[in-house]
Every structure is written in structure tokens, then in C-alpha cells.
């Protein structure tokens, strides 16, 4: 069995959709990422040999923050570069929200050392995505196309939330979008659950989706079928 080495650049409570999807989490994540510096990268090099074992089927998994700063992407690029020297598989978990076409050089460099990207698409509709996260989804969808153009293997994950993303029109459109990509290795249709409610209450925070019911197994299957229908659709 592969040994999974997990590096979380931003340690946040994964609640419901994802804590980073809520606007109040953003400033916390930014402050945490600003702590990364060039000195951190230099210091990490000193301990790379101890951190990594020789490639024997190991995997390095890094979860990108949705508010990635310059220091963050530099750190992960160096981390993955050192991992590849040890023949370790690298996987990047991100929504790609920070991707911009006119600043593509750093992403090009990161992809050199990335074996797999786990892409989180929260909503296919731009207006609904803004309501849900406070941001447009344009960068995310452009990042997906960029990965496809570069033939980088991509594992797509989509959380299906009643009253928000559990609608045939949205899931059908998601399927149509995915059809235009040529690098998808897997698709996770993840049912929304309410396990986060108690965690938010303990933290004294308002949980914005508390009124939303959990998605049933039957609904999750229906959601996947709608995505597949969109994927198979011939305009």
C-alpha cells in the first residue's frame, strides 16, 4: 500500500462544501500563507532527505489554498521538485481560483513537477458561484482548460448540495463542460452532508448552510446521471 505524505499549506476546518468557500475564512488563510517565505524554502531543502524516502510508491499530496500567494506557489513548486528527485508521485488539490492567463509562468513551472491535479469545481454557473463563494468561476474553468491543453491528468470533484447545485440544468452543463476536456481520469460526485454544523457551533461561527438537508444516496446517483447525460450530449 502506498504511503501518503500529506502536506496542508492551509489547515482549515473542512465544513460542508469547504471552509475556504466562505468569505469569512479568506483573511485567515491569507495570513497563514503570508507566513511562507524564501527562507522557508531554503530551510525545507535542508531536511528534504529526511522528509522523503527513496521512491518506492510513495505519494506527496499537497492541498492548495484558494487564496494562494506568491510564496505559496513557490513553496509547493520547490516541494514537488524535491519529491520528483526521489521518484515520489505528486498530487495537487486545488480549485484553481488563483489561475490567470497573463501570469502563467509559475503555473507552468509547478506543472513540471505535478503528476495529478485534483480539481474542485463548486458550481458551473458563474452567478451562482459568486453567490456561493463570493468569486467568479472563470479562473477555475480556465484552469481546467489549461490543464487539459497541457495534458495533465485531472481528477474532478463536485459537491452536490440540495437547493444549490442539485439541479438538472447545472449538472447537465457541468457534464457538457467536462466533455470539452481531454485529461479527466476520474469524477467524484460528492453528496453534501451536515457533519460540519456542530464544528461551527463549537467555534462560535454561523454555518451558512445549516438549513440545507443532506443529499441522499439516490439523489447523488441522480446527480451523477445528469452529469453523464450532459457529457454524452451532442449539440
Structure description:
- The protein is of the alpha/beta class and 235 residues long.
- It has one domain (4-232): Aldolase class I (TIM Barrel, Alpha-Beta Barrel).
- Helix content is 42%, strand content 15%.
- It is built from ten helices and six strands.
- The chain has helices at 26-33, 38-46, 48-51, 70-85, 105-111, 126-133, 138-149, 168-179, 196-202, 217-232, and strands at 4-8, 59-63, 89-94, 116-120, 154-160, 184-191.
- A six-stranded parallel sheet has the order 1-2-3-4-5-6, covered by helices on one side.
- The longest helix has 16 residues, at 70-85.
- The protein starts with a strand and ends with a helix.
- 33% of the residues are buried.
Keywords:
235 residues; 42% helix; 10 helices; alpha/beta; TIM Barrel; globular; 15% strand; disordered N terminus
Number of strands: 6
> Quick one: overall form?
globular
Compute the number of structural domains.
Answer: 1
CATH architecture tag: Alpha-Beta Barrel
Q: Biggest sheet: strands, sense, closure?
A: 6 strands, parallel
Oligomer: single chain
DSSP summary: helix tally: 10
- What's the mean pLDDT score? 77
Order of helices and strands: EHHHEHEHEHHEHEHH
- Could you say which structural class the secondary elements and strand pairing correspond to? alpha/beta
Beta-strand share of residues: 15-25%
What radius of gyration results from the CA coordinates? 18 Å
- Intertermini distance: 44 Å
* CATH superfamily placement: Aldolase class I
CATH fold title:
TIM Barrel
Give start-end ranges of low-pLDDT stretches: 1-34
Strand order of the largest sheet: 1-2-3-4-5-6
